[in-house]
Design a protein that fits this description.
Length: 441
Amino acid sequence: MFRMNTLEAPKLPDDLECSYDSLVKGFGKTSSRCAPGPGATAEGHKAASFSQKLWRFCRNKRVRYPALIEPLIQRVRDDVRQEDTLLAVHDWSTLSYGTHKSKGDRRTLTHANDVGYDLATVLMVRADDGASLAPVSITLATADGILSTEQNPVADVAHVDQILPRMDFVTSLKLTKRIVHVIDREADSVGHWRAWAAMGHQALVRADDRLVMHNDQERKLTEIAEEMKGHGGLRDAGEALYRGRRARRFVGETRVVLHRPARRREGDVRREIPGEPLSLRLVVVELRDLDGRVLSQWLLLTNVDEKDADAATIATWYYYRWRIESMHKLIKSAGWELESWLQQSGERLLRKLLLAMAACVAVWGLERRNDDSSESFKELLMVLSGRQTKTRQPITTTGLLAGLWVLQQAATWLSRDGPDSANEMIKRHLPLFAKYSKQTT
């Protein structure tokens, strides 16, 4: 019987009836009110209702969130010992539970009728090949307060104000030699750029069309980009995929200075906060189709030194930001159906989410292995998943997770009743599908 490699379990209370290890070993669909999501039993444990096990696990408040995420952080430490650079990708995602009235701690999200939770994640990604390693920080903002895997949770403030404390937290983990924080345009803020630089953090942010100083003139970023393009300043940097289509990347860079005062809203008043000019690299990226039409343009600002990463590398690092978008899609729609979970509080939901993340991390690790045993195991999981795939991509993350659900359910039953019992039942009730051994004379 196949058995997935699991993460090392944190030290938990002795009286915890359902161990972390038994939960992260496998995940499967269940007919209980837990909704789609994790479900398994551990080797050496009696087969039992996963819904009851998860209920006991989530009810035990002595197991804190930092203990639950520590195995994922350790997985990152084990995986990047030789890395020079690691990307910390920050992002937020709203979890909508408009019809889940039993969740008493829902908060208002984008508008009055949109209620649920606000999820913040920091995902560690390898800079050399873009491999997703594991989330090291997960925070759920509820109406009752902040639930976080960090020992000192970030306050309930605007998203951009949450970034600096999380940068400090990632630094405290001492994961690798260099951390570059990758964030979408929500983080493009003059005042925050100055604060990050003052603390020595390196960042890569997609910028809005802001005014900067360039060659002693105040200009917009789009004007600078058009001038660079007109003067042949964008060079072909190789192939890329854009929404599943083949494309080419064209990249160029120049120096700009953030010189304007920061602006901060305090109540109904918008206050200007002066600061020292900050020199940054502007990396302009155009994704063009094979006929030369522009599909997308990125205006990237970074304080990573030129000797540490050229413009093409910076463009690649931002491209890897989409790993966190894929992760959110995986847990929300493509695999875990997170917004259908029926836990009645953000606290219980976050505990189950951490277990789902552990399964994703295990599957990502399996995807990266290419030895014969791993390849055979991936093929088995894809067969069990029943998923149809494209010839050029026979292995998918969602397929591996779906196959794992099926395998763990089957393994639980077989560990209790044995394969001979299964064969006898098939012969008796579904003889057309039975496989009889050849009789020897």
